[in-house]
Structures are given as C-alpha cells and as structure tokens.
Amino acid sequence: MTTTLSQAFVRNFLGHAPGWYKLVVVGFLVVNPLLLVLAGPAVTGWVLLAEFIFTLAMALRCYPLQPGGLLAIQSVLMGLTTAEGVYREVLGAVPVILLLVFMVAGIYFLRDLLLYVFTRLLLRVRSPPMLAVLFCAVSALLSAFLDALTVVAVAVTVGAGFYEVYHRVASGKPHDEAHDATHDAAVRAPHREDLEQFRAFLRGLMMHGAVGTAIGGVMTQVGEPQNLLIAEQAGWNFVEFFVKVAPVSVPVAIAGLATCWALERFRLFGYGAGLPAAVREVLRDHSEHMAARATPRDRQVLIAQALVAAILVFGLAFHVAEVGLIGLLVIILATSFTGIVEEQRIGKAFESALPFTALLVVFFVIVAGIHDQHLFEPLMREVLAHEGRTQAGLLYVATGALSAISDNVFVASIYITELKAALLQGLVSREQFEMAAVAINTGTNIPSVATPNGQAAFLFLLTSTLAPLIRLGYLRMIWMALPYFVVMTGVGLWAVLYLL
C-alpha cells in the first residue's frame, strides 16, 4: 500500500497513539493561543496545567514526554514562562535530577541481591494482609531516612524481577534464553488466569509501597526535599523536626497502616488479589534452581552487592553527599566488583530512569509557568489572612490541593517563604509560625497521594517499565490511592486542628 508524504506525517505524529488522542493533543495546541488572546495568561496557565495532567493520565496510551513536551514548548513560545524561568526551576531541582540519573541506575546493579532477599520474604510470608503491611511499613521506614524515589526504584526493580521470572516460565522459555516480558502471545493457556492475578497482586504491592514512602517521608527532616526546606526556614534539627511533626505524622502513619491491612483483608479498591499458588511455586523453583547452580562467582556477586548496599544505606542515612552522587558511587563500586565493565551493559541501567528524567524537566516547564503567572498567589493570600488553628487547617488543605496537581517542593517553597517573611515582620508569633510550618509540611506530603503527579515517587512508578506490564495506569492509581487519600488526609486534618 502506497503512503503519501502527508499520511506519513500524520501516522508518525505521536507514533502508535490512538487517532482520537492525536486529535486531542492537536486541539490543545490550536486552542491554547486563542485562549491566551481571549482569556489571558492566568486562565491559559490553568488550562495548560489541566492539559498536562491529561497527558499523564494517558501514559499507557502514549508516554507523556512527547505530548507534554509539546505543551511545554508552546508554554514558552506563548510567553507564559521564559527559558530563564525554566532554567531556574531545573537548577533548583538538580539534586532530584542527579538522583534519577545515577541512583536509579545504581539500584539496577543491586537487582540480584534485591531479588534474592525479597523472593525469600515473599515465599515465607503467606498472609496477604501481613505481607502488604510489612511492605508498606518497610517502605515507610526506609523513606524516613532515604529518598522516596530510591525506595520506589527498589520496589520497581524487585517487582519487575518477579514478573520477568514468572512470565518467562509461563511463556515456556528457559532461564538462560532471551525473553521479552512485554508481550503475552507466548503465554500458555493454563498460565493466563494466574498471570492476571499476579499482575493484580503486584499492583497492590507496588501501591502499598508507594503510599508507604509518603507515610515515612513526612516524618523526618530528610524524608522529602521540601522537609529540608521547611526545617531550614524554621531552624529545626533532625530531632526537633520529628518531634514537631509527630502529632500529625504518627496518627497518619497508624491510620495508613490500618488502611493497608483493611484493603487487603476485605479486598477493596483492587487490592487483596493474593499471590497465586502456581506463581509461588514458580518463584520457589526459580530460587532453588538459582541456589543449586550458584557458582563461587555468583556468591561473590551477592556478597559484593550486599557490601555496596550497606555503603548505600550508610551514605544516605548520614547524608555524606547528595543522593545522586551516592548513586554514582554505587554504580562505580557495584560494577567494579561484579565484573561489569562493558559500556553496553552499563548503559542498559540508565534506560528506565532517563525518560522519566526528561519528563520531570518538562514538568518543571509547567511549574515555571505557574510561578511566572503567580497562579497560586490568590489562594495563598486568602489562607495567610487567617490566624491560629484555622490558618493551620487552611494551610494543610490548600498546600495539599495544590501539591496534588503541582510540584510539592514548589508549593512548600512559596508558602514557607511568605510565612517566614511574616514572622520576621512580626505579623505572626513564633508559635503560630511553627504550627503553620507543620501544616505546610504535612499538607505537601499527605494529601498529595491523591494523584500520581502529586509525588515524584508516584509519577516514577506510573511511568516506569513495570507499570504497563502490570496494567497500572493513571486512573487506576487514583482509584487505588483513593482510600489512603481519604483516611490519611482526614486524620491529618484532624491532627492539625486538634493535636498541634
């Protein structure tokens, strides 16, 4: 069949995305300049934000980098922001970008150890509610001291490892043969139902882990990037930060873990699938097979990875350097002592992180537009006009709502800066300032679990290579996060109003 040049342009635009989706994106690009002329930059800025969120919601149809990137380019061309404004936002996010580039790749080189440890955990804990609570609690504990993105990267690596092991067996492929786990054509009929249940099991486990990072991340000074910013403005050290936030963070943690147990126990909101017996058997056989054929070199690799993992935990816990630089250290050590010296094998580790890194930079273009057009300022002025617990409650709700659709570090920066200025001018007392600071910290951490773009860890999970394998899309993430959002946000608001 002969294809004309115009048809080739149409077909190649956004690749294999559905035709209706291509038309919607083109519609956005046509309407936005008209909207700028008719309604002004503020309205256009809000609409552009909604359009970008739409591209995230359609992540399984088309990776958001391309349609979101086109919207971001248009935002600059229309003057909603500038190249300098974008660079300013990106410059402020260099630690996060370094983390994505190097730490996620570093975790890739520890996958043998991670798969070994988590396979034994998975095989020994048979109760789905207990396994879910354990996974959520471990993620929370790690996120209180490590970066949430690092914890989610570990979870994604482990989940992808489990999926590949079973999918290979279900497709009738031996352990040492190349296999593409993205296609189900070779999956044998008896395994198809178990594969679907296994996907549901992994979806639940990944979501429990992702929510766990939010539960733990709010508790400590180093749990999330905005926590460091707030602690610096308030003059709190590690212990002071934990104590100040504890009246809100501890009840939220208890409520979150209780919600985790209830979701699995009563099989609500897509949870409670359980690990199929056939899959458990495959994972056990794989574990025994790998143990039986293990050579001294295989054991040396596990020992080397364990030592590097210990260095990783130590480096992150004591913050000896930026997280991304510690990730580079992990890459160098893990490859040096496990025989990986080929450029091609090292380059493969960066495949999963770099597309998301590019997407995050595109997101900062949208954030720069929000900043330059002062879209959040009316709400900020309204909230800061109140006093006492009312102000704290409104700050919690406002920062939570804005963090669910924007960058929580950006939102925290805006509010804590204004609040610190009010303190220095004598407009608020030190007691009121600290209460409001806790409200901002918990508001930017807890309600933001409502949407995948609310937290970088959630967005990373959504755009990871694992998400399409286990059928975890934007709307499904919102649905599965909904009970956590309702319970944790409600408990957090109650604690801000009555326990601070």
Structure, explained:
By secondary structure, the protein is mostly helical. Among the domains are: 1-80; 94-223 and 247-354, no CATH class. Helix content is 76%, strand content 0%. The protein contains 24 helices and no strands. It has helices at 5-12, 19-39, 41-57, 65-77, 83-92, 94-108, 111-124, 128-145, 148-170, 189-217, 225-234, 238-265, 277-292, 296-317, 323-336, 343-348, 354-372, 377-384, 388-405, 408-424, 430-445, 456-462, 466-469, 474-498. The termini are far apart.
List keywords for this structure.
single chain; 500 residues; mainly alpha; 24 helices
Instruction: Output the helix-strand order.
Output: HHHHHHHHHHHHHHHHHHHHHHHH
Q: Main sheet, how many strands, which sense, barrel?
A: none
Large-scale geometry: globular
Q: Outline the low-pLDDT stretches.
A: none
Structural class: mainly alpha
Which range does the strand content fall in?
under 5%
Number of strands: 0
How widely separated are the two ends?
70 Å
- Name the helicity range: over 70%
Mean pLDDT: 86
The rounded Rg comes to 23 Å
The number of helical runs is 24
